[in-house]
Specification:
By secondary structure, the protein is an all-alpha fold. The chain is built from 6 helices and no strands.
Length: 127
C-alpha cells in the first residue's frame, strides 16, 4: 500500500523532472532554429566549437551540448583551450543566459530523475 508521502514524493520529483525536461527541450529547439548561426559567429575563434562541428554523427545537437558546457563552466573550457577568452568576454549577456538556463534545466532535470529513481528503488516500487 502506498503512503501519501510516497505519492507526494513521486508527484513532486516527477513533475520537476518533466518540467525541467520540457524547458531544456524547447530551449534546445529555440537555440538551434533561431540562435545557432549567431552563436557560431560569436564563437569563431574557439577551437572546441569547430572540433565539435567536425563530428557529423551527432550534428548540431552535439555542438549545442559542447557550447552549453563551455558557457556553464567557462574557466575549465578556457583553461583547456576549447573556449577563447575574448569570445567568452564578448558573448552577449542575454544569449549567454538563454544557453545557461537551457543547460541548467537539463542538469536539474537529470538530478531530479536520479532522485526519483533512487526514491522509487528505496520505496520498493522498482526491483
Amino acid at each position: 500500500m502506498t503512503d501519501d508521502d510516497e505519492i507526494w514524493f513521486v508527484l513532486t520529483f516527477g513533475a520537476l523532472f518533466l518540467g525541467l525536461g520540457f524547458i531544456s527541450f524547447f530551449g534546445h529547439v529555440y537555440l538551434y532554429f533561431f540562435k545557432m548561426q549567431r552563436i557560431l559567429d560569436l564563437l569563431g575563434r574557439s577551437s572546441g566549437v569547430w572540433v565539435s562541428k567536425s563530428f557529423s554523427f551527432f550534428g548540431a545537437y552535439f555542438v549545442l551540448i559542447c557550447i552549453g558546457s563551455f558557457m556553464l563552466f567557462p574557466s575549465l573550457a578556457i583553461r583547456g583551450g576549447a573556449l577563447d577568452k575574448d569570445d567568452y568576454l564578448n558573448f552577449p549577456r542575454e544569449l549567454m543566459m538563454a544557453v545557461r538556463i537551457c543547460y541548467l534545466s537539463a542538469l536539474g532535470g537529470g538530478g531530479a530523475m536520479i532522485v526519483l529513481l533512487a526514491g522509487c528503488k528505496y520505496m520498493g516500487w522498482i526491483d
